[in-house]
Write a structure and sequence with these properties.
The chain has 2 domains: 41 residues, Arc Repressor Mutant, subunit A (Orthogonal Bundle), CATH 1.10.10; 82 residues, Alpha-Beta Plaits. It has 5 helices and 4 strands; from the N terminus they run H-H-H-E-H-E-E-H-E. The radius of gyration is 20 Å and the shape is elongated. The protein has 155 residues and is of the alpha+beta class. Strand 2 and strand 3 form a beta hairpin. It holds the Pfam family AsnC_trans_reg. GO terms for molecular function: sequence-specific DNA binding. One of its GO terms (biological process) is response to amino acid.
């Protein structure tokens, strides 16, 4: 889908402030409210905008430990991967699960927990108990250097 400058401005603005009302959005990008709303609805219908969510402060919620976990699987079969993915998706501490290539790991997880004790519980009693998990390597995040959710827009 080709994006014009108004579409790009809408997407950039909504990525920065998903709660902006249509009038303010229209004013910011230089359109009247009706065409602006039609464009937003079209971007939603086309699947470019897939949802809106609040960004929470993990530390204020007591979630101060973030880890990146590499998971190696014992078998590389669609059934084994599907089983792992279904189980890992059910763990709320897993923020992201990526199937990767070029490493010893098959998956990279980003998890957040309260502390090291909670991490140990998560790893030993939930993640490593998923059938097929053959190896685990963890890196702990010291601090976030870049933390953005906004995607770069083409054009």
């Amino acid at each position: 889908m080709a994006l014009d400058r108004y579409d790009r401005m809408i997407l950039e603005t909504l990525q920065a402030d998903g709660r902006i009302n249509n009038q303010d959005l229209a004013d910011r990008i230089g359109l009247s409210p009706s065409p602006c709303l039609r464009r937003v609805r079209a971007l939603e219908a086309d699947g470019l905008i897939v949802g809106y969510r609040a960004h929470l402060d993990a530390k204020k919620l007591g979630l101060s430990l973030m880890a990146l976990i590499g998971i190696a699987m014992d078998q590389h079969t669609p059934e084994r991967f599907a089983h792992f993915e279904a189980n890992i998706a059910a763990i709320p501490e897993v923020l992201e699960c990526l199937l990767i290539a070029g490493q010893r790991a098959d998956y990279q997880l980003k998890v957040v927990v309260e502390d090291m004790e909670a991490y140990q519980e998560l790893l030993l009693h939930r993640i490593t108990r998923i059938a097929g998990v053959a190896g685990v390597h963890t890196s702990f995040v010291l601090r976030r250097v870049v933390d953005r959710a906004a995607l770069p827009l083409p054009g």
